[in-house]
Amino acid sequence: MALLRGRVLTGRILDPDDLLDAAQKQAENEQEKINDKNRGLTGPAPSGMTGMPRLTFVNEQNIAAIRNLAGLATPMALRVAVTLGLPDRLRGEGTAVEQVATELNVSPVALEVLLGHLATLGIIEHASPGYRTTDYGATLCTDADNGLTNFLHLDMAGGRAELAFVELLHSITTGRAAYSRRYGQDFWADLAHYGHLCESFDQQMTHRFREQIPQIVAGYDWARFDTIVDVGGGHGTPRRDSGRPSADPRPPGRPRTHRGRGEAHLQRILCRGPSSTDRS
């Protein structure tokens, strides 16, 4: 028999600290069960997820943000809008959906759904008897001359190449170009075969260099060279802005590409497939 703080206990003498620790541990276990239930982590692990670490935090804002990043509805809606020329067509006063559908020879029902989504994006707005392009949406008009038309138009070099991203799994799995898998021939063969693609590619290069030329010119001592050759893929803008003549501003051959990182690098792998230099 043992006397513990006024209580008679049988067996060994119990340490009060042990009792407190046990009570605290039980409370922590109960709280963990409540937390697991709130996280949706009760029950057996889903098939194929056994042995994986348990989630400790689920943020609804993060889920929504990632869903928005991954969704294809808005990127494709913008591309289809530019391809159909909707920002240009809906300039000025409001135009009825049925009229636009008839002019473009598209489904009026499907077009109205597309226009409704573009309105939620602020590209167009309701205006009797239909829709009109907003100031924000005018950024997508052809005469905005900002390169977006080429980038988004599905029948131009930039927009057509962008769709090769749907074959990204093929490129990562096999190490081969996604462009040829989707279109039946590689990017450069496509440019050679379709004149309008080649022309739009040159336009794309012109827009790109328009932004990059000041840095290129200022970042190097071009005066040290007597002759500078612009190797295809544009209209000779870098050579002209460098202030030096060229023996042949557009010699035959493929437009020259350069090593890149991030999205541009991934785009090149999709079009050409990875090379040994891509691994460095």
Write a structural description.
The chain is mainly alpha-helical and 280 residues long. It is built from 14 helices and four strands. Strand 3 and strand 4 form a beta hairpin. Helix 5 crosses helix 6 and helix 11 (187-193) crosses helix 12 (195-218). The longest helix is centred in the first third of the chain and has 24 residues, at 16-39. The protein is extended. Residues 1-11 and 244-261 have low confidence and may be disordered.
Largest sheet: 2 strands, antiparallel
Q: Total number of helical segments?
A: 14
Low-confidence stretches: 1-11, 244-261
In order across it, which strands form the biggest sheet?
1-2
Shape: extended
Share of helical residues: 40-55%
What's the alpha carbon Rg, rounded to whole Å? 31 Å
Write the element-wise H/E pattern from the N-terminal end onward: EEHHHHHHEEHHHHHHHH
Average of per-residue pLDDT values: 78
**In whole angstroms, how far apart are the ends?**
77 Å
Per DSSP, what share of the residues sits in E-state strands of 2 or more residues? 5-15%
Query: How would you classify the helix and strand content by structural class?
Result: mainly alpha
Can you count the beta strands? 4
